[in-house]
Design goal:
binds dTDP-4-keto-6-deoxyglucose; 5-stranded antiparallel β-sheet; 12 strands
């Protein structure tokens, strides 16, 4: 399983804080897309893997639970604002659960949106992992 917590650069002073992500510096890819998930209810999200996409998820507010599954093991992570980003490599199944109502996730992505990059069927994911 290739996941990793990434320290974001942080600059704090009397006015507040700056959190900094830079492509090819602390983010291990060129960022082609940024999207945010917010206003979630108790419904879980995700349930897919990506063939090529690499992502870094940054929790800006609230909390949620993230399950990452590489086809061999399944690990539970807890996301909350901690000045870090959570890197998920391609070919890892992800599920997001238990969003708090104030949860805001910012996601930095290595590619533009492409539905054909998604594997939304778990059995198909397992088959592709074994190939
Ligand atoms: C991921 C997790 C963390 C777009 O049109 N453009 C986009 O950039 C994205 C991200 C989504 N969409 C469309 C595709 C669906 O029709 O928005 C709709 C909802 O997307 P989805 O059901 O994939 O949302 P999540 O929260 O299950 O997954 C998203 C990302 O898609 C995915 O890459 O890793 O957040």
């Amino acid at each position: 399983m290739h996941t990793e917590w990434i320290d974001l650069y942080n600059k704090s002073d009397s006015r507040g804080s700056l959190l900094i992500a830079e492509a090819q510096k602390n983010i291990p890819f060129d960022i082609k897309r940024v999207y945010c998930l917010y206003g979630m209810n108790s419904e879980s999200r995700g349930f897919h893997a990506h063939k090529e996409l690499q992502q870094v998820m940054v929790c800006l507010s609230g909390k949620c639970r993230l399950i990452v599954d590489d086809g061999r093991s399944r690990v539970d992570f807890h996301l909350s604002p901690n000045r870090r980003g959570f890197f998920i490599d391609k070919m890892n199944w992800r599920e997001m659960h238990d969003f708090s109502s104030d949860c805001i996730l910012m996601v930095l992505a290595s590619h533009w949106y492409d539905e054909s990059d998604y594997i939304r069927d778990y059995k198909e994911f397992l088959k592709l992992i074994q190939e």
